[in-house]
What we know:
Elements: H1 3-10, H2 16-19, H3 30-51, E1 58-61, E2 66-69, H4 70-86, E3 91-94, E4 98-101, E5 107-115, H5 117-121, E6 128-135, E7 138-146, E8 151-156, E9 161-163, E10 166-167, E11 181-186, H6 195-207, E12 210-212, H7 217-226, E13 231-237, H8 243-251, E14 255-258, E15 274-279, H9 284-292
Parallel strand pairs: 3-5, 11-12, 11-13
Antiparallel strand pairs: 1-2, 3-4, 5-6, 6-7, 7-8, 8-9, 9-10, 13-15, 14-15
Amino acid sequence: MTTEASAARSGEPGGAAGRGEDRVVAPPDLEHARRVAVDAAGAAGRLITEGTRAALVVNPKGDDGDVVTDLDLVSERLLVDRVLSAFPGHAVISEEAGALGEAGSEWTWVIDPLDGTNNVAIGLPLYAVGLALCRGGRPELGVVHEPVTGRTWSAVRSRGAVGPAGPLTAPPYRPGRSGPVLAWIQGYGVRRGDPVATALKAALDLRARRVLRLWAPLLAWVMLARGDIDGIVGHRTGVVDLPGGLLIAQEAGAVVSGFDGAPFDRVPLDGSVCDFVAGRAGLQEELLEEVRAVPGITS
């Protein structure tokens, strides 16, 4: 790790994060960045897998039911060090550590070191590692790694999405009498009994054959990209577990829009929450209409 990257990682005043200065950074080679991210995600996944064989240290995070484990922290440390060593001029937004790296950079890595921490905490083997490289909030590279199976999916904008078996293409949706299979994602800030969330979930339960609540959004995006599920509805979601999976699904052919119907291809890097509807071709517009018909939904 370079001296500058080390200072940025630790938050020392001499590091890039402490200076707060803009500097010109050449656009990265996105295929090289993909290789760095894929290797880092795999290494983090192996650390997590090894860690799940021992006793976990689980602590509450905030008052909304979220938790953090020692595995989140060790995975994050590895990922941030790998990214800032390879790209010391980039910014980083990471789940636990927050903003790091070169403040003001147009290139920002968004890192979720362990998506599905609550699942890990209760022994449910459903979790992922995610990285995305964004330019001005627009994902240009996305990587999702599933430690349990050792599988990795990735995408570079306008170059398609790939998985262990090769290119990913989500086939068009073909309506059936039993309805679509959907995934529901909500942010931790959505309180129990929230009237809009309650109405949305009730509407989806009536419309769908099944609504999955995985507690691991990145895996839902991969399932959409593979065509395993038909759509996703996200309500007031956070950003850290969003851009990598979003890009993979879009590059596989999924259509994603905000609740206002506008294309959803940028994520807010300022901590704002997001509402979106994603679906395989042939379903997304219909699904969007159903969501927007729910009382209390605004665009």
